């Protein structure tokens, strides 16, 4: 009989083999643990052996390479296994580290995209400590188990190879083991045929088990790493318009004729093909259109994608029927307008009694701003959780805790008009250095309750707030390389400027002045192509980390402290913000200023001179709540920063003529909310509820309940500019037309949750964009998380009964999900879920069409 070759590297061979086995199996166990809640336990147990088939193949292959090749081939085989071990070790360490930080799975294609981005790479490095700790543990286990694992596999596979040699009449040698008793043929055959039988049965079950979700659950490193080499898609060729799935709701009996500036609603693409919806040039149109207004132009090739940035791949794209990729509100089956309704009565009354000038518009987009902490309230779910952590606290301790929590978001209380209800008396939480609202009684602006984000990826969300568009449901910011299918607010202001080009501006009337658009943040603009996106959206100027860190920068100073992997604390842009306001005043310009806060982003770093508070009980597993506590301190820092901005508006004399819009880009889930932490592939409701406020000291204080998203911001700004008489006649004419072009409703008027049976749908893309979609409606309390790939589950919740989504329904199969929904919530919930699934998938195709997105 042939004998297998002895070890070439007695110490190295067992360690390498053990490393491959331990990392492969540990990675699989973690992978299965993350999905065990989403499948029936009996099915999980039945299919459990099938999940490890590929892992077994990897381990056997590694053993074979290390055991049977002689001489130089053996050395080459050793190198191959070493490379495999290194890859598996790195992947498994990353998986465990990522799980420790977020509770989620690593997606290697997303990780590779981050790794090629400078700021993204720093984001990955922020989790280096748990990855290093995981790697150390895996390496220690591999070293400790190396003799046992090698012995077990050598015994087992030696028997298999020996028996196979006998059965095939082959002459060979088996691997001699120290002190091994001579095996009997009966034992050898028993092991061999038992192995063959078990593998045959498991393989049979593997072939006939359902593909979803068990194929995904069987994923094995290093094969899962192949996702790193997936090529990104590109913008190229449009999809054909797809019919709306709820066809009865778009029948001709529901069509609406044109009425004044309202262009009507007739969602039938045959009207385009027969020329019935030919676009007419408006009377206010300029001679040449600025960027962003391509579909208004008589020359469809004008002002499109930047020709200078087109690649060879772009040149090979087929010709485009531009009508098929243009947004047309007349044809949008999801659009519901409320512009036919009167203004909210308090606003109408205020406009009758006094002027409300809007010379400037500030849009403050707040990173990871959860509505339940803007402001934090006594008795809220979070407040109760914090109090619960203080198990042995006295009433005095609880009073002290409430005092500290009351001091967490006092500025947010004033901006929204909502009290934290911590019973500290009138503004008892305002210290002398904090901003104090000088608005009159009952004044301060519109606070929207029920707003959700359009995306839990920051700059997809920014597109909604600045451009009134739905983002592209693919991973990361491909929008930066595409044409935005609606004019952004900055481009509308450029249009207003262009309409004034021939005017002689000699008056003091602010309505004759031109606009300037400026973007400001204290962090990098290079992450995920934000710098390119800013140019696409139409900003005239950007002030970002890359500007202010230069020694030649106007306000550069020694000791500028980077607090996270993105950049500096917000205070570093304060002098630039002041300069921008003073420059606008001196040049008699109107200012649109967009500011993105960042301190509330992971890892929630703070300036060294900012004193942190301990909100969670220090004797209650502090590490469990450490991240949430860091976040709350970052929220407190940003709250004071918002107060600094409001003070600056007052000190520079522009507060009473400035509309300030506050909106969150998305929320932030913690372990106290969800088993998955953060926004990455996490559809939990805490990632979607965001604050939305239209602040002006001369607007009445109103609370508007509207389950809307940030796509309503742009129409509301235009509605305010028109109705406050803050535009000249030509600009007002243009704005009154343009407001009818957008998908969102104006929050200056009663919000329509439904119309003629159609619901006001809220679609939310889940970070990173191409894997999951949140589908909700303003008309009902239900919510569906829709998987866009086969690697994720369906999730259903009823927000009215379960506002914090602590008891959601999860299943891999949609029809099984429906059966559970019916048992728990009834037939109406099932009907809605069916509609939501259809509309969500239609919306994904529709957005790809509008973004002219082509999948290779």
TrEMBL record:
<keyword id="KW-1133">Transmembrane helix</keyword>
<feature type="domain" description="Sulfatase N-terminal">
    <location>
        <begin position="514"/>
        <end position="721"/>
    </location>
</feature>
<dbReference type="InterPro" id="IPR000917">
    <property type="entry name" value="Sulfatase_N"/>
</dbReference>
<keyword id="KW-0812">Transmembrane</keyword>
<feature type="transmembrane region" description="Helical">
    <location>
        <begin position="189"/>
        <end position="208"/>
    </location>
</feature>
<feature type="transmembrane region" description="Helical">
    <location>
        <begin position="43"/>
        <end position="66"/>
    </location>
</feature>
<dbReference type="InterPro" id="IPR052701">
    <property type="entry name" value="GAG_Ulvan_Degrading_Sulfatases"/>
</dbReference>
<dbReference type="InterPro" id="IPR017850">
    <property type="entry name" value="Alkaline_phosphatase_core_sf"/>
</dbReference>
<keyword id="KW-0472">Membrane</keyword>
<dbReference type="Pfam" id="PF00884">
    <property type="entry name" value="Sulfatase"/>
</dbReference>
<feature type="transmembrane region" description="Helical">
    <location>
        <begin position="78"/>
        <end position="101"/>
    </location>
</feature>
<protein>
    <recommendedName>
        <fullName>Sulfatase N-terminal domain-containing protein</fullName>
    </recommendedName>
</protein>
<feature type="transmembrane region" description="Helical">
    <location>
        <begin position="121"/>
        <end position="146"/>
    </location>
</feature>
């Amino acid at each position: 009989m042939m004998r297998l070759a002895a070890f070439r590297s007695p110490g190295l061979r067992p360690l390498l083999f053990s490393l491959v086995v331990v990392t492969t199996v540990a990675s699989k166990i973690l992978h299965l643990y993350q999905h065990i809640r989403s499948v029936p336990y009996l099915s999980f147990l039945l299919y459990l052996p099938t999940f490890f088939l590929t892992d077994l193949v990897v381990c056997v292959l590694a053993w074979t390479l290390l055991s049977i090749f002689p001489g130089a081939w053996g050395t080459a085989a050793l190198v191959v296994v070493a490379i495999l071990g290194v890859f598996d070790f790195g992947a498994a360490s990353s998986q465990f580290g990522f799980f420790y930080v977020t509770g989620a799975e690593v997606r290697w294609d997303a990780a590779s995209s981050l790794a090629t981005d400078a700021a993204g790479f720093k984001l990955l490095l922020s989790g280096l400590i748990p990855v290093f700790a995981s790697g150390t543990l895996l390496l220690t286990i591999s070293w400790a188990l190396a003799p046992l694992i090698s012995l077990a596999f050598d015994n087992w596979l030696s028997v298999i190879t020996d028996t196979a040699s006998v059965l095939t009449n082959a002459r060979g040698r088996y691997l001699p083991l120290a002190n091994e008793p001579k095996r009997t043929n009966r034992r050898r055959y028993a092991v061999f045929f038992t192995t063959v039988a078990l593998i045959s049965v498991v393989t049979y079950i593997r072939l006939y088990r359902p593909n979803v979700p068990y194929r995904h659950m069987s994923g094995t490193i290093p094969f899962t790493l192949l996702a790193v080499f997936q090529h990104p898609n590109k913008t190229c060729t449009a999809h054909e318009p797809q019919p709306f799935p709820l066809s009865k709701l778009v029948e001709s009996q529901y069509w609406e004729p044109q009425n004044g500036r309202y262009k009507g609603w007739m969602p039938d693409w045959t009207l385009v093909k027969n020329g019935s919806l030919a676009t007419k040039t408006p009377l206010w149109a300029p001679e040449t259109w600025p960027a962003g207004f391509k579909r208004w132009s008589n020359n469809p090739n004008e002002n499109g994608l930047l020709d200078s940035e087109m690649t060879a791949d772009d040149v090979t794209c087929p010709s485009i029927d531009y009508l098929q990729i243009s947004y047309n509100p007349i044809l949008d089956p999801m659009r519901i307008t409320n512009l036919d309704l009167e203004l909210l009565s308090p606003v109408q009354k205020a406009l009758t009694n006094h002027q409300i000038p809007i010379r400037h518009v500030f849009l403050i987009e707040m990173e990871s701003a959860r509505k339940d902490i803007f402001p934090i309230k006594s008795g809220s779910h979070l407040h109760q959780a914090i109090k619960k952590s203080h198990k042995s606290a006295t009433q005095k301790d609880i009073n002290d805790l409430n005092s500290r929590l009351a001091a967490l978001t006092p500025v947010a209380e004033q901006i929204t008009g909502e009290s934290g209800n911590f019973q500290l008396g009138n503004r008892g939480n305002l210290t002398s250095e904090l901003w104090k609202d000088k608005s009159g009684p009952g004044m301060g602006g519109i606070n929207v309750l029920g707003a959700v984000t359009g995306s839990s990826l920051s700059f997809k969300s920014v597109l909604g707030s600045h451009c009134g568009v739905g983002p592209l449901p693919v991973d990361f910011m491909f929008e930066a390389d595409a044409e935005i299918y609606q004019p952004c607010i900055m481009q509308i202001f450029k249009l207003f400027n262009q309409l004034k080009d021939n005017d002689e501006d000699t008056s003091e009337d602010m309505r004759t002045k031109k606009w300037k658009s400026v973007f400001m943040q204290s962090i990098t603009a290079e992450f995920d192509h934000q710098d390119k996106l800013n140019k696409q959206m139409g900003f005239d100027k950007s002030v970002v980390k890359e500007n202010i860190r230069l020694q030649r920068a106007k306000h550069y100073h020694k000791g500028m402290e980077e607090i996270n992997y993105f950049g500096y604390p917000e205070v570093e842009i304060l002098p630039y913000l002041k300069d921008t306001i003073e420059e606008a005043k001196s040049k008699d310009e109107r200012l649109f200023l967009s500011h993105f806060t960042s301190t509330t982003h992971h890892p929630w770093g703070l300036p060294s001179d900012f004193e942190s508070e301990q909100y969670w009980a220090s004797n209650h597993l502090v590490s469990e709540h450490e991240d949430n506590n860091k976040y709350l301190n970052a929220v407190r820092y940003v709250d004071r920063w918002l107060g600094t901005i409001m003070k600056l508006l007052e000190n520079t004399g522009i507060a009473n003529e400035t509309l300030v819009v506050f909106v969150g880009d998305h929320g932030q889930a913690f372990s106290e909310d969800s088993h998955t932490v953060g926004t990455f592939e996490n559809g939990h409701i805490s990632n979607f509820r965001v604050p939305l406020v239209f602040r002006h000291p001369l607007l009445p204080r109103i609370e508007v309940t509207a389950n809307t998203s940030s796509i309503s911001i742009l129409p509301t700004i235009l509605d305010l500019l028109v109705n406050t008489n803050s535009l000249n006649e030509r600009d007002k004419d243009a704005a009154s037309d343009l407001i009818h072009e957008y998908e969102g409703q104006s929050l200056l008027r009663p919000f329509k949750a439904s119309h003629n049976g159609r619901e006001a749908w809220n679609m939310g893309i889940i970070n990173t964009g191409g894997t999951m979609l949140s589908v909700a409606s303003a008309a009902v309390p239900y919510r569906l998380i829709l998987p866009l790939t086969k690697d994720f589950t369906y999730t259903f919740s009823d927000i009215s009964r379960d506002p914090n989504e602590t008891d959601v329904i999860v299943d891999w199969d949609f029809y099984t999900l429906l059966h559970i929904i019916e048992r728990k919530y009834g037939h109406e919930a099932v009907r809605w879920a069916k509609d939501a699934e259809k509309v969500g998938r239609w919306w994904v195709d529709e957005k790809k069409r509008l973004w002219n997105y082509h999948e290779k």
